[in-house]
Design goal:
Number of helices of chain A: 14
Oligomer: heterodimer
Structural class of chain B: mainly alpha
Helix content of chain A: over 70%
Number of strands of chain B: 2
Shape of chain B: flat
Number of helices of chain B: 11
Order of helices and strands of chain B: HEEHHHHHHHHHH
Order of helices and strands of chain A: HHHEEHHHHHHHHHHH
Strand content of chain B: under 5%
Helix content of chain B: over 70%
Radius of gyration of chain A: 26 Å
Strand order of the largest sheet of chain B: 1-2
Chain lengths: ~300, ~300
């Protein structure tokens, strides 16, 4: 009797397990199809001309129209005008702006996060504990209606439409958020024996930070930098609001999307512009996907 | 005896020097980021409070407005259709996300933690949309919904339909689906990370005791990730009044009123109205904060009481 009950229970367990896995697998397959189909359709459409697009919407291009990409390069422009001067930015300039903005903001944001997380994890003064709690509260507490005030503040401090202001000064205080706790934990995970041995050898606090902790956590810094880079590269709103005199490619795409001139109004050309922004990030992902996807672990390196 | 006392004093002096050096280094590390944060975060919040009591005339001159902006906000919220529609849409977006996306992300994250076939591939695919610019995804999705799907319906089913975003009947659900399509991966990643932090020994012990797939989720996995789930739910509630749900990416300044959210409506007023709109919009923000902040704190306290791990 007991053996039968155990067998029955095992059968029930298997069915539950199988049903849930089939449901999960089914949903994931549908999701992957739903994700890939528009992207593949977008890539193929970006190579079609108007006639090919309307009569052959789902097939391969009759003739691969690389001219669509050249049209984007010629017409991907954003105008800027203020009381003193006006300027039109082309694709190359916007690409450079994107690179400069992304690299600078990523480095400054990541460095700010690292420095504060290191200070509060290594030096547990009352203020460090207060900061931990404050950042936790900030994550959950909603603060509304701040944008208008922020714009006024940026103008008052001369940071509005100022690359150094927005890419450097505005990012110096970017240490709040979930990553603060993650980076803190990484520092706490480094064996204290490293710092203690260094101090016994006469190293100061700065030496311990720059020559021991930074090299050991360089991988994490790189991951944070890459994630910030991707976020800054894709951000069109911050440059649109605060750096319209320094438009990035993402902002350019927003502007291009609404363009109505005959050359660029067509779907294929708009999709070609999107592909030109998607490709660099996909290349970055292909190169760094292991680093981005895996958990960061510190290699033990106690001196032997 | 004297030597011992001298040694103790020497150690005390050395120890004070070390502690002073630590403190000086600590201050040097935190001073610049904290100064920037204090000026720009606290500064902008204080500025927001002052801004809410101002009034700007056509020439940009500010005057003290008392509580006029707050009265205007209450009046608008009670009588202006944009706010009624915006709150309704914000709530509906939040509800749909919570009811569909949350259980699905939990199921997928849990299943993938149990070595589902193709797990690594699915993780990479789920992560990929978070890398692409929202603008790129919007352009792809918009043209696919407006051109490809109607053409597909006509070719295969001989049924003529309009673009899913331009047709009022399908607009809302299509735009909501974009959020699901583009944002599912980031929700999944959050729960996947929380599940991987559960100790293997707890799971193995449970398996030895004979728990099945569902029992393990109910009695072990969910209680251990409950905090992540609860915080995500509480934080998402706040988005009802602030999130645009990608309307600006799709429509720029011209989203139809029927689809607008409060967050979108406020956002476009900042740019179309200019500085004259700032005081009223900031007053709205302050009032929303005063309502939601205690609500969030209360929900967090309640959450701590019902958290299965406490």
């Amino acid at each position: 009797m007991e053996t039968t009950n155990v067998i029955k229970q095992k059968s029930r367990i298997d069915v539950t397990f199988v049903v849930c896995r089939v449901l999960a697998l089914g949903f994931l397959i549908l999701y992957v199809i739903a994700l890939f189909i528009p992207v593949i359709w977008g890539i193929l459409t970006s190579f079609k001309d108007k006639v090919d697009f309307y009569y052959n919407m789902f097939g391969l291009p009759e003739k691969w129209q690389f001219e669509n990409y050249l049209t984007v390069l010629k017409n991907f422009k954003v105008p800027y005008r203020n009381s003193e001067y006006s300027q039109t930015f082309n694709f190359g300039q916007m690409l450079f702006n994107s690179l400069a903005y992304s690299v600078t903001t990523s480095f400054v944001s990541s460095a700010s996060m690292f420095v504060i997380a290191y200070a509060t994890s290594m030096y547990r003064y009352k203020f460090s504990e207060f900061l931990d709690g404050f950042i936790m509260v900030l994550m959950v507490l909603p603060i509304y209606g701040g944008m208008a005030s922020e714009i006024q503040m940026m103008k008052a401090f001369g940071l509005f439409e100022n690359f150094f202001g927005m890419a450097v000064v505005a990012k110096l205080g970017s240490f709040t958020g979930l990553w603060y706790f993650i980076v803190q934990n990484i520092f706490k995970g480094v064996p204290k024996a490293f710092a203690e041995s260094a101090k016994l050898d006469g190293a100061g606090n700065a030496t311990v930070f720059f020559r021991i902790y930074i090299p050991l956590t360089a991988g994490m810094f790189a991951t944070l930098f890459i994630l910030h880079f991707i976020s800054a590269w894709n951000d069109y709103l911050t440059p649109k609001i605060y750096l319209s005199n320094f438009p990035t490619a993402a902002y350019g795409l927003w502007y291009f999307k609404t363009a109505t001139t005959a050359d660029v109004a067509h779907v294929s050309v708009k999709l070609a512009a999107s592909m030109m922004l998607l490709i660099p990030i996909m290349i970055l992902f292909i190169i760094f996907h292991e680093k981005l996807m895996n958990n960061i672990s510190l290699a033990e390196g106690v001196k032997e | 005896m004297e030597t011992r006392i001298k040694e103790k004093e020497k150690n005390k002096t050395q120890w004070s020097k070390m502690r002073r050096a630590d403190l000086i280094f600590y201050v040097c590390l935190i001073v610049i980021p904290l100064l920037q944060f204090s000026i720009f975060w606290f500064g902008s919040k204080f500025n927001a409070i002052f801004l809410a009591f101002k009034l700007y005339d056509e020439n940009g001159n500010a005057s003290f407005a008392g509580f006029a902006n707050f009265k205007k906000v209450i009046d608008n919220v009670l009588h202006l259709k944009n706010y009624h529609i915006g709150m309704r849409n914000g709530f509906l977006f939040w509800l749909l996300n919570t009811v569909t996306q949350t259980p699905l992300t939990l199921l997928i994250a849990y299943s993938l933690s149990k070595k589902l076939p193709g797990g690594k591939f699915f993780k990479v695919v789920l992560f990929a949309p978070s890398l692409a610019s929202t603008m790129v995804m919007v352009v792809l999705y918009e043209y696919f919904c407006e051109e490809a799907i109607p053409a597909f319906m006509l070719t295969l089913f001989h049924k003529k339909i309009g673009g899913l975003i331009s047709t009022p009947d399908t607009r809302f659900i299509t735009l909501w689906l974009f959020g699901f399509w583009n944002g599912f991966g980031s929700g999944f990643l959050m729960y996947a990370n929380a599940i991987t932090s559960i100790s293997d020994s707890i799971v193995e012990a449970a398996e030895i005791d004979g728990v099945n797939f569902v029992q393990e989720f109910i009695y072990i996995t969910f209680p251990m990730i409950y905090n992540t789930f609860a915080i995500q739910l509480i934080v998402s509630l706040g988005g009802i009044f602030s999130t645009q749900f990608n309307l600006y990416e799709f429509y720029g300044y011209g989203a139809p009123t029927s689809i607008q959210t409060v967050g979108y409506y406020q956002f476009i007023r900042i740019f179309l109205g200019g500085e004259r709109e700032y005081p009223e919009l900031t007053a709205f923000g302050l009032m929303t904060t005063l309502v939601f902040a205690p609500l969030m704190i209360g929900l967090r306290k309640l959450n701590e009481k019902i958290d299965p791990m406490h």
